[in-house]
């Protein structure tokens, strides 16, 4: 069996967008990542080739800021979960997104809209970099 290169995808989201609904154990973002992992692995035919890095996988007892920065540097793609919660999150906007844009530009950023949000609220440079990269969520 041939090996495959491992592709890590960093998931950037506002925690408010991952709160479980009544009766659910996991939130919307966690469900999305699990389904993407399942579908992409199925398309490739290998589960170990694609890995999503989401912050609940990080070790809380270690320096979280540095773990997140390292995870972003090691990721081939940045999956941004777009929402008003994302725009309102200082951490998402001014730490994660700005670092990834600074390190890699906008070519490796993919946006999933959890719900429609005001993309015009993105700072000017980010509007240029991310402008048409957003897609609508399907139920």
CATH architecture: 3-Layer(aba) Sandwich
Low-confidence stretches at least 5 residues in length (pLDDT < 50)?
133-139
- Main CATH class: Alpha Beta
- What is the H-and-E element order? EHEHEHHEHE
Separation, N- and C-terminal Cα atoms? 36 Å
Assess the beta-strand content as a share of residues. Answer: 15-25%
Number of helices: 5
Q: Given the C-alpha coordinates, what overall shape results?
A: globular
Query: Could you tell me the radius of gyration in angstroms?
Result: 15 Å
Question: Please, how many domains?
Answer: 1
- CATH fold-type name: Rossmann fold
CATH superfamily: Toll/interleukin-1 receptor homology (TIR) domain
**What's the arrangement of strands in the largest beta sheet?**
2-1-3-4-5
Helix content: 25-40%
How confident overall, as mean pLDDT? 81
Task: Provide an overview of this structure.
This protein is of the alpha/beta class and about 140 residues long. It has a single domain, classed as Toll/interleukin-1 receptor homology (TIR) domain (Rossmann fold, 3-Layer(aba) Sandwich). It has helices spanning about 30-45, 65-75, 85-90, 90-105, 125-130, and strands at about 5-10, 50-55, 75-80, 110-115, 135. Strand 4 (about 110-115), helix 5 and strand 5 form a beta-alpha-beta unit. The longest helix has 17 residues, at about 30-45. Residues about 135-139 have low confidence and may be disordered.
């Amino acid at each position: 069996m041939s090996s495959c290169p491992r592709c890590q995808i960093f998931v950037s989201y506002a925690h408010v967008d991952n709160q479980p609904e009544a009766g659910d154990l996991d939130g919307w973002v966690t469900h999305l990542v699990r389904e993407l992992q399942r579908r992409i692995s199925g398309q490739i035919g290998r589960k170990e080739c694609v890995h999503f890095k989401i912050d609940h996988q990080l070790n809380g007892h270690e320096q979280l800021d540095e773990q997140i920065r390292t995870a972003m540097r090691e990721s081939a793609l940045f999956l941004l979960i777009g929402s008003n919660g994302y725009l309102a999150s200082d951490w998402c906007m001014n730490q994660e997104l700005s670092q990834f844009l600074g390190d890699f530009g906008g070519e490796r950023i993919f946006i999933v809209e959890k719900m429609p949000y005001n993309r015009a609220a993105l700072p000017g440079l980010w509007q240029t970099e991310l402008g048409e990269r957003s897609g609508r969520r399907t139920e």
